Amino acid sequence: MASSEDVNVRICGQEIIKYDLEIKALIQDIIDCPGPQSALTQLNSQVKEKLNKLRLRIQDLEQMAQEQDTESTRLSILTETESQRRQMLSNQTAWRKANLACKLAIDNMEKDELLHGGESPSTRQRKVTKESLVESSSSITESLMSISRMMSEQVKQSEDTIGTLATSSRTVQETNDEFKNMTGTIHLGRKLILKYNRRELTDKLLIFLALALFFATVLYILKKRLIPFI
Hints:
With 230 residues, this protein is mainly α. Helix content is 92%, strand content 0%.
């Protein structure tokens, strides 16, 4: 049975992967964002929130690595932590590039509309292209969110497993305590039996000596009265 520490490490790793997928989906939404600026701002706010959560979970995973009993397990988790940290930095770089590209596209579109006093055929064509890209992105995002939901379910199952492990641990501890109490009682009973056995042996020896003294006394009296000339 896996220990609670192993389950915690697995849950943390699953949550890191979930946040990573969500951030990638949001970056793709930024790339496909047709505007306005408020929509881009909202997406950036979501990315910041996910990045903060991801950063905290990576720190948690690093802390768990330091708490491992074996050196090989500690190094394995630290390697995974470093890999996830590099992936987070890669996401941040992609996020900045996506922001620059999206802002440039929005600025160019606004300038084009100002210059032509409205929508030109090329502008409408770009919007149609953007809409198709958004639909494609939405489909991808939905797939990623489905994966995220599945991982959330796995996290919940792992949490249930932790609860079961904790209950089992308490039961084992209680059984161990009862066993210790029973062992103490048996040890005390054994000492009492040995003590009573020694007492019985002592009593038998005293009785034997008393009988021997009694018979010796009787023989001595008989000898003095019946055979005085001996």
